[in-house]
Amino acid sequence: MSTHRTLGALLVTLAVLSTACNKNTSPTAPSGPVTPGTSVTYTAVGASDAIGYGSSVPCAPFVTDCTNGMGYVQVIVRQLQAQGSTVTLTNLGIPTAVIGPDFEALAGQYNRTVVGNFIEREMPFVARASTVVTIFAGGNDVNTVAAAVGGGAGGSDPAAYADQQIKAFGSDYATLIKGIQDRAPGARIVVANLPNFAGIPMTAGYALDRKQLVQKLSVGFSTQVVNPLALQGIPVVDLLCDSRFSSPSVFSSDGFHPNDTGYAILAAEMVKAITSSSYPAPIGSCSQMTIVPPR
Fold first, then answer.
1. Distance between CA 61 and CA 237 in Å, rounded?
2. Segment (H or E) for 39
3. Which ranges in the chain belong to alpha helices (H)?
4. Contact by Cβ (8 Å): 94, 137
5. How far apart are CA 202 and CA 237, in angstroms?
6. For 62, left (φ over 0), alpha (ψ -120 to 50), or beta?
7. Strands of 132-136's sheet, edge to edge?
8. Which domains does the chain have, with CATH numbers?
9. Can you give the C-alpha Rg of the chain in angstroms?
10. Would you call 36 exposed, middle or buried from its count of C-beta atoms within 10 A (0-12, 13-18, 19+)?
11. Which of 85, 136, 226, 242 could tie 193 with a disulfide, CB 3.0–4.6 Å?
12. Whole-prediction pTM value?
C-alpha cells in the first residue's frame, strides 16, 4: 500500500475514533418530568437517610418492600403511587456512606466509621432502566472533614483545608452524576443540597470555631457543588434556604437525621421536582447561609 493511502486510512480511522469519543463525552440531556400515572423505575442514592434512619419506621438497608417506612424514599414511593404510578424501587442507601473513596479514606484516617461510598458502592448498581434517580449526599462528608480538622488536618489554616475538601466533593459529585447518566440515560435525576449544619441540634453545643467550619462546609457543598447542577437542568431541592430545616422540630433525637416531619418535607419537595417541568432553582442568598458569623 502506498504512503498516501496509508496516511489516508489513518486519518479516516482517527476521524472515526474522534467522533466516537465526542459522542461518549458529550453531556447527557436531562430527562423530563415524570407524568403521574406512568410506570416509574426509581433508584435512590444516599446514606442512612435513604433508609429513613431517625424516622419512626426506618427500613433495613437494600430492602425495597418496606411499604410502611417513614423515610423520604419510602414516602416518595407512596406519593407517586397515590398519583397512579406503578413504582419499582432500588434503594442503594448505605448507612455511614460518603460520596467518594477519598472521603472514605479520610474517615478511616481519623477513626470514623464509614462502610462505603456512593461512587464505588452505589453508582455501579443504579438500575439501567431507571426513570428517576434521587441523590442526597454530603452530610457524612461534612462530619468527616470536621473530624479531620479536629484531629489536626489543615494545620494552622483549616479554612484553606476546608476549601480543598469542597473542591474534592465537587469533583466526586461530578463523577457520580456522569456515572449515573451513563448507566441510566433515561433517568430524571433529582438532588438535594444540605441544610446549614451550624444550625441543627447536633451542633448546638459546638464551639464557635467548629460551628464556623461546619457552616463553611455545608454551605460550600451546597452553593459551590450542588446548586450549580440546576444550570444543567437537574432539579435541586433547596434545603439550605428552607427555613423549616433550621428548626429543631424536623430533626430526630440524634439532632442530625430528620424525623418523620423532616423526611415528609423532603419527600414532598422531591416529588414536586420529579413531576414538575418548572421546579424553582435554589435561592442565591438567604439568612440560613450565615447562621453563625463567618470566620
1. 24
2. strand 39-45
3. 3-25, 72-82, 101-109, 118-121, 139-150, 158-183, 208-220, 260-275
4. no
5. 22
6. left
7. 86-91, 39-45, 132-136, 188-192, 236-237
8. 39-290 (3.40.50.1110)
9. 21
10. middle
11. 226
12. 0.89
Name the residue type at position 262.
Answer: G
pLDDT tens track of the chain, all 295 residues? Answer: 443 333 333 333 333 333 333 333 344 557 899 998 999 999 999 999 999 999 999 999 998 889 999 999 999 999 999 999 999 999 999 999 999 999 999 999 999 999 999 999 999 999 999 999 999 999 999 999 999 999 999 999 999 999 999 999 999 999 999 999 999 999 999 999 999 999 999 999 999 999 999 999 999 999 999 999 999 999 999 999 999 999 999 999 999 999 999 999 999 999 999 999 999 999 999 999 999 999 8
Residue type, 213: L
Find, among 72, 136, 81, 134, the residue nearest to 265 by Cα: 72
Which one, of 138, 65, 62, 131, lies nearest residue 100 by Cα? 138
- Bridge partners (DSSP) listed for residue 40: 87
